[in-house]
């Protein structure tokens, strides 16, 4: 990763569906290059908060900054494609008619990166996630864990300043989920990218994150610093 990560600052973020308040005055500071897990039960607001970070929803109150840049407020919202983010979804979101290489290359194609550079960067990204020999395959030829690695390669290939994860491992069985979680934790720390990871699984959060932000009823109920087995911060 050659680009510097950025801080993420949320101040007074609020959102409601009709009379039902989903987010209630969320204040959160995420340091550059850190990994934050949003953890809590269904309906606590974590997915809504991630969608606001991604630009899929606009906050009704408060402000969102990436570094010094105002990204969203009740009056203004930067489109998702202009936010310099990468996102990994729960359902992989791979195009079945494309090869693995074509799926991974898509963000670079949209940025009009040359074919030669695209090819080089696709192979680098696939090697990072352990799929260097799978470039010519179709997603249907891969296991669920391999498909999620493809989605991760696609998210990191454009070297975004921020990575967002929407419960990416929830469709996998327990053993595979934990092993892939460990791989992702290692890769994210190698990349040094600011990351926000939504999960309902405390074990995933403890493996991946530097801090766990607990949400309850649309508010931050606690913030936990994660420590490694040695007792040092992760």
TrEMBL record:
Q: What are the GO cellular component annotations? A: membrane
Q: Do you know which PROSITE patterns this protein is assigned to? A: ABC_TRANSPORTER_1, ABC_TRANSPORTER_2
Q: Which InterPro entries match?
A: AAA+_ATPase, ABC_SmlMolc_Importer, ABC_transporter-like_ATP-bd, ABC_transporter-like_CS, ABC_transpr_FbpC, P-loop_NTPase
What are the entry keywords? ATP-binding, Cell membrane, Ion transport, Iron, Iron transport, Membrane, Nucleotide-binding, Transport
Q: Name one GO biological process term.
A: quaternary ammonium group transport
- Keyword Transport recorded: yes
Gene3D superfamilies under this entry? P-loop containing nucleotide triphosphate hydrolases
The yes or no answer to whether the keyword Magnesium is present is: no
A GO molecular function term, named singly, is: ATP binding
SUPFAM superfamilies the UniProt entry points to: P-loop containing nucleoside triphosphate hydrolases
- ABC transporter domain boundaries: 8-234
PANTHER family, from UniProt? SPERMIDINE/PUTRESCINE IMPORT ATP-BINDING PROTEIN POTA, SPERMIDINE_PUTRESCINE IMPORT ATP-BINDING PROTEIN POTA
Q: Family per UniProt?
A: Belongs to the ABC transporter superfamily. Drug exporter-2 (TC 3.A.1.117) family.
Q: This chain belongs to which protein, by name?
A: ABC transporter substrate-binding protein
Which species is this record about? Pantoea coffeiphila
């Amino acid at each position: 990763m050659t680009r510097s990560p950025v801080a993420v600052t949320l101040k007074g973020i609020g959102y409601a569906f009709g009379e039902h308040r989903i987010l209630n005055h969320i204040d959160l500071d995420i340091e550059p290059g850190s990994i934050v897990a949003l953890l809590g039960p269904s309906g606590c607001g974590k997915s809504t908060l991630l969608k606001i970070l991604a630009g899929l929803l606009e906050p009704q109150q408060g402000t969102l900054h990436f570094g010094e840049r105002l990204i969203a407020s009740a009056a203004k919202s930067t489109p998702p494609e202009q936010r310099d983010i990468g996102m990994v979804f729960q359902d992989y979101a791979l195009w079945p008619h494309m090869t693995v290489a074509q799926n991974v290359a898509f963000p670079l194609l949209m940025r009009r990166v040359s074919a030669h550079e695209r090819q080089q960067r696709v192979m680098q990204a696939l090697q990072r996630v352990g799929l260097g020999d799978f470039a010519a395959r179709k997603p249907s030829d891969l296991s669920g864990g391999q498909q999620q690695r493809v989605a991760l390669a696609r998210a990191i290939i454009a070297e975004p300043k921020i990575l967002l994860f929407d419960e990416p491992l929830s469709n996998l069985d327990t053993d595979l989920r934990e092993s892939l979680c460990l791989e992702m934790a290692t890769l994210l720390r190698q990349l040094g990218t600011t990351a926000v990871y939504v999960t309902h699984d405390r074990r995933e959060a403890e493996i991946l994150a530097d801090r766990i932000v607990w949400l309850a009823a649309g508010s931050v109920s606690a913030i936990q610093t994660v420590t490694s087995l040695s007792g040092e911060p992760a």
